[in-house]
Amino acid sequence: MKAKRIIQKSCLSLMLMMVMLFAMNVAVAAADVTFSNVKQTGATKSTATVNWTSTASGYYVYVDGQFMKEQTGTSYKVSGMAAGSSAVVEVVGYSEKPEVDAATVYNLAMQGLYTGFRMEVFSTPGKPGNVANAKYNNFFDWNPLTSNAVKVGWSVNAKDKYYADGWQVVISTVDGKKKLKTLTVKGVRSEVVSTSFNLKSVKNKGFSMKVRGYIVLNGQKKYGAWSGTKVVIPQVKSSAKLTAKNRSVKLSWQKVSNAVKYEVYVCKDTTVSNPKFKKVKTLGKNVTSYTLKKVPLYKRYGIYVKAVVKYGKKTYKTNAAVGYHSVYFYRK
Question: How far apart are CA 132 and CA 143, in angstroms?
Fold first, then answer.
């Protein structure tokens, strides 16, 4: 019984000596390896590439803690990413090939017995949405009755895991054949991004637009997916003349480029919180006025006109009414 205990003690001592020797060898191997110039150099909607400089003879590559491959090259491309996502790349270098498996190498690296690096990498931003959505003021505002300044906005892709470094906005003619302006918008920590512009070339014509996000890698922009193209037809620039004698209002407007008809909308009570406008008349492309007669006394009416335009085989209508003429008659 005593002899057995001596043998067990001797075996335990031998194992400890082997572990210490292995750790010493690992420490020496780690000391021979250095890393520098670690950076992400590429990105697409589904990939991210990282490069580095090192004295190692080989590398183990891990993504989000999972072993991916052993290699000798100093570049690795993460694939299969979702747009607007990120991943953590960990690379462990060695001067002499380890005699243990990749999982053990990873654990030893976590203990500082192997040299490596850890870096978060990013795919390019996902497709933006709600571009110039006229239902909401923070996405669209253009009132030609008072100004030619246009505000457009868009929403960040709901699946994006980070905020883009910036955005590129391209403004073109309605038919998309001519680019009018390219805007660069700085990234913001918000789910909604917007910008403004004032172009004479869109007055009484409208425009089309698209937008995409980007990230900056080493001073270079890596662009994400384009949004869908949004066509914006302006509200018709108009004026209103009231005549008290017959309680009428004459609405006159400027022609909109490529208009094929005009639609007149009237609200019989604009004092409510959500005024309801109803189309009362459709007029030909050469008509530039409409008279609304016998407006009731002491009623706050509203009136405006929309344009319907055609480019090629495609037809578009004024996106939304952002302003109307207020009409009110009372007895003196």
Answer: 14
CA–CA gap between residue 83 and residue 46 (Å, rounded): 6
Distance from C-alpha of 34 to C-alpha of 23, rounded to nearest angstrom: 18
Nearest to 43 by CA among 91, 89, 88, 77: 77
Provide the CA 270 distance to its chain's centre, in angstroms.
36
Which of 183, 192, 239, 190 minimizes the C-alpha distance to 211? 183
Q: Per-residue pLDDT tens for 96-154?
A: 999 999 999 999 998 888 999 999 999 999 999 999 998 888 899 998 888 899 999 99
- The candidate with the shortest Cα–Cα distance to 222, out of 162, 164, 163, is 164
> Cβ(192)–Cβ(155) under 8 Å?
yes
Longest dimension (CA), the chain: 125
Phi, psi of 58 (to 5 degrees): -160, 165
Residue 214 C-beta-side C-alpha neighbours within 13 Å: 18
> Please, which residues have CB within 8 angstroms of residue 34's CB and are 6 or more apart in sequence?
54, 55, 115
User: How many residues appear in the chain?
Assistant: 332
